[in-house]
């Protein structure tokens, strides 16, 4: 069970009612939840819809550099003027009901999408699902990428409990796609879908990746549907974990096409090849420099880091440099236990209250023979790594989206 306090939909309902319930006037919306991959799937889906000619609203969180990244239409961030005016308009009412920062941003997104008269809206869940502020919508399609260990203090101490919270986005009669099968959660989703009479689709029952070719800036995939249909696609999101997200995307698009959306395989190929350009997604195995290669990766939990390490196994490099900072409310020791002792470590921290101090992280890392020095800022750590590294080395900045957000290195 979730702790008492800020959790619940009462405040967001009150705020949206004050605004005239813009969420009820949204066009077809697609609701995306999951422990890992929900941001990538949301951006991929938005890129496909944009490419197919639909004016697409995209709401995601958190942002990396600019708050306005959270709310986009056809890849363009919400205007500063709209943000300022919206906050002014709700100021008096907000003081009476005290909405959270996240509740305000969700309401802002719905209001902006209504004003912009979008054709479709892709809405990423913030945390969990059942009591997430975005769960006020009645979508055309629900998507749950996967279930893993994260936010246990709020979502539950078993994968079954976490699945129930994520599965809270399943709505009556609304189809739901599950990106990844997992024995701990499959039965939960089947029960929730049956209770809601929601058609349930496990993506990997219909699609599978039969081969892939990893390039520095892209991931080429061979995808099979059933026994006879084959697709070759490439995505500019080269993380090996995107194999699962692309399968989830293909299954979701099948359901959209059944509902009258006009989307071709050529449009899917075009969108996947330039998702970062079309939607501005950052931090998912983002290669920002070569010789030495510098990668930004927002993986910050057990499942995310496991996938990152699987990706590393497919690469060739001389020495691995890991610049890491984490937040205190994550399962830090579980993540550290996964990391390779052979790497050179640079312990640092984001400049936020939730950040674990670099010194504490260094001490925990030492328990797992992860040797490295402490740096007060991620950019100082990165400059040190760049000075030490040889051209064929690999430098990864990881551990926290807040840490990645503070990197100032320009993309080459």
Report on the architecture of this protein.
By secondary structure, the protein is of the alpha/beta class. It contains 15 helices and 17 strands. The chain has an 8-stranded mixed beta sheet with strand order 4-3-2-5-1-6-7-8, sandwiched between helices. A 6-stranded mixed beta sheet has the order 12-13-17-14-15-16. The longest helix has 18 residues, at 80-97. It starts with 9 loop residues before the first helix and ends in a 7-residue tail after the last helix. Residues 1-5 have low confidence and may be disordered.
Average pLDDT level = 92
Query: Roughly how many Å is the radius of gyration?
Result: 21 Å
Classify the oligomer: single chain
Proportion in β-strands: 15-25%
Number of helices: 15
* Category from helices, strands and their pairing: alpha/beta
Give the fraction of residues assigned to helices: 25-40%
Overall number of strands: 17
- What's the arrangement of strands in the largest beta sheet? 4-3-2-5-1-6-7-8
- The shape is globular
| Major β-sheet annotation | 8 strands, mixed
Q: End-to-end distance, in Å?
A: 47 Å
Stretches where pLDDT is under 50 for at least 5 consecutive residues are 1-5
